[in-house]
Amino acid sequence: MTPEALKTACLALNGAEETFPFNAETSVFKVGGKMFALSALEGSPLSVSLKCDPDLAVRLRAEHPAITGGWHLNKRHWNTVLLDGSLPARLVLDMIEDSYDLVVASLPRAQQLRLDWPGVRSRGTDGG
Questions:
Q1: pLDDT at 123
Q2: I need a labelling partner for 66 at 20 to 30 A (CA). Which of 40, 82, 86, 119 fits?
Q3: Residue 48 lies in a domain
Q4: How far apart are CA 25 and CA 86, in angstroms?
Q5: How are the residues of the chain apportioned to helix, strand and coil, as percentages rounded to the nearest 5?
Q6: Kind of pairing between the strands at 67-69 and 47-51
Q7: How far apart (Å, rounded) are the C-alpha atoms in residues 48 and 127?
Q8: Is 38 among the domain residues?
Q9: CB burial class (10 A; 0-12, 13-18, 19+) of residue 33?
Q10: pLDDT per residue as tens, the chain (128 positions)
Q11: Looking at the 3D structure of the chain, how many domains does it have?
């Protein structure tokens, strides 16, 4: 995955925005003001940190050497993914979407509805 493809994948998600709160080199992709992806797009090797369900995070790390605990992040909830070509593109895209979904799931229902997030529609009108 190229830096441009990574950026495009993150920004393709409803309401996603690229910010630079840490420095000009580190892209932080947010939805609803909360981070779901973090990458130094010009870094070599290219990597991205993504939010992940803790149990899945452990499994992914065990199965893929290119996936490690989140660098400078809470390793229980974040993975850093080395984009060196060793992982299938579909897996990387799924991890980006999962990270986004975890963040959107934590947002208020009204915000989820504004984002037209499928998860809120599947829960119905009772919010649960």
A1: 57
A2: 119
A3: yes
A4: 24
A5: 35, 20, 40
A6: unpaired
A7: 32
A8: yes
A9: exposed
A10: 999 999 999 999 999 999 999 999 999 999 999 999 999 999 999 999 999 999 999 999 999 999 999 988 888 899 999 999 999 999 999 999 999 999 999 999 999 999 999 887 665 544 44
A11: 1
Structural contact between residues 60 and 26, judged by C-beta atoms closer than 8 angstroms: no
For residue 108, is the peptide bond before it cis, meaning its omega torsion is within 30 degrees of 0?
no
Range of the domain at 59: 3-117
Q: Are strands 17-19 and 27-31 parallel, antiparallel or unpaired?
A: antiparallel
According to DSSP, residue 17 is labeled: E
How many other CB atoms sit within 10 Å of the CB of residue 85? Answer: 11
Kindly state the DSSP code that residue 123 receives in the 8-state scheme. T
- The residue type at 124: G
* Three-state SS letters, 44-99: CCCEEEEECCHHHHHHHHHHCCCEEECCCCCCCCEEEEECCCCCCHHHHHHHHHHH
For residue 88 the two structure tokens come to: 């299938």
